[in-house]
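To: structure subgroup
Subject: Chain for Friday's discussion

All,

I'm putting the inputs and outputs inline so they're searchable in the archive.
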Amino acid sequence: MERELNQINVIPLVDVMLVLLVIVLTTATFISTGQVPVELAKATTANDHKDVPLMITLTADGRLFVNDQAVPTNGLSTILTAHSRESLVVFRADRVTVLERFVGVVDEVRGLGFRQVSLEVLRS
């Protein structure tokens, strides 16, 4: 007994599309927020950047990231030598970061010749 197929089974198609939708939505949230969790400080004024800056993130436990890539101890200058000195550098520091560590990293970046250095904060 042979049946004729006159309908398309769309259930597997719907399953595949739902899985793809979940994957896209999950990765979109990581791309938009960044992968390094930092609780930014708040300020009443903040600038909006139109170009793509060089993001340096300093976490609460003292770890350092450049564009969401972990930086080994004393390896910041090695990583930054590949970038143009005219690049905009934006610091994202956790609000409980030790001030001495933050100032040391900013001083190191400024010492390498970067002059456009700013701090990212949340508008309150």
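Points worth raising on Friday:
The chain has a mean pLDDT of 82.
The radius of gyration is 22 Å.

D.
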